Amino acid sequence: MAEAVFRPPRRKRRVFESYESPFPVDVGGTDFRICQAEIINNNVIVRNPEDIEQLYNKGYFGKGILSRSRPVYSISDPLLVSKWQGANVNMPIISSNKYQYHVQWAKSILQEQGFDDSLVTKILENYTKPLELPFLEEDGAEQTSNSCDRTAPNPELSRQSSTDTGNAVTLSPENQNEGSKKACLEEEAAIDPVATCGSKEQEQGDSKERADVPCQKHGFLVHCGCKAEESTEQRSCEVIKSKEHAPEYVLVQEEEGSLCPEEGSAHAQENLVKKEKLVCRRNPFRIFEYLQLSLEEAFFLVYALGCLSIYYGEEPLTILKLWEVFSEVKPNFKTTYMAYHYFRSKGWVPKVGLKYGTDLLLYRKGPPFYHASYSVIAELVDDNFEGSLRRPLSWKSLSGLNRTTVNASKELMLCYLIRPSDMTEKEMSTPECMKRIKVQELIVTRWVSSRERSEQDEL
After folding, report:
1. CA dist., res. 134 & res. 130, Å (int)
2. Which residues contact 349 (CB under 8 A, 6 or more apart)?
3. Which member of 127, 337, 363, 416 is catalytic?
4. What is residue 195's three-state secondary structure?
5. 410 counts as catalytic
6. Is the pLDDT reported for residue 343 higher than 90?
């Protein structure tokens, strides 16, 4: 058997971050914290933004459910942000079409809770009406004070879509002094995004019974800003407890048509200038980024590092319970986790290799720095390299898998986890069985006869 030659990983051309730490564990122990996750629909989800930042930035565990990999999802359109780069406000800028999607999603959630169509329409109309921009500090950060004595900028940032207009966004001059009268939003609307609509008799029905029912969709908590009316004290307490209940302000790009001064001319239609403006509104359907951990990553954080606690309902699960639950959810979990644990201990960053038809992808340092070097298939065998293989490979399937891997500038690795012949199923029911497991790595390469002949001729 030929000895495998180690090839250095291919570094990415553009790297925009620095390498902080291989694991989310503080060596000194001063900043050590236990992150929390929960099992939803057989998936391990991390909700806390601080835990998300801790787990992904140090070790690149998990991926954002709305992002490509790093959990940095934003509802802002990058093209709109660059287009309105003169608007120095710390708010997302979205298109009118995207905002209408959020309104429709909020409408469907309210309808599922049993509200009348007329009541839902009134709630959304009152909730999504144009507002003054939230108070801004001198440095552009959003002001949290609800003082009504300050003047706020005008909500509409207008811009002509003509060729000679630059990228700067200017405030409409006719309404700049008008903000002092409308600067103070209604207290109920500013503190909590609650729409008041209709008479009290209308709201005494289903709204009181369903006001506290959380909106759920596909097992994940979906935050809909529109709720039934509550007391002011309850609303203020909710804002203090969690930022998720506070209103999210967005700048919506809207278009309006206006005629040039030559309205009486025959070319009036040609002089129609399309104007674009940014209108401040409340977002009726907030979307939050969660971190989704693979079962191998979650168990490694619990078992090997001890920096994660996984809950099912309100009860944290023990290591033995997680080993049992994960093995039921994923029949080959024990095999893939042993391989994951082995490569993580060797300094690699393993990620799910589903898109290349394998179990794992191995990265040096992490995905932001290098491309994956190896695609790994893990198999559990006995001392004689025999056993019930999870995916028996024929020559045709092996050749196709190797061709796919090589075309992606990777190498195919077969990772054999060798268990002793005297190991029982009872021993395999705990993660302590890994102490007796041996690992054999095998790199598959394509032998090219013409290349071998040319090399021999040169020698």
Report:
1. 12
2. 59, 60, 362, 363, 364, 365, 366, 367
3. 363
4. coil
5. yes
6. yes
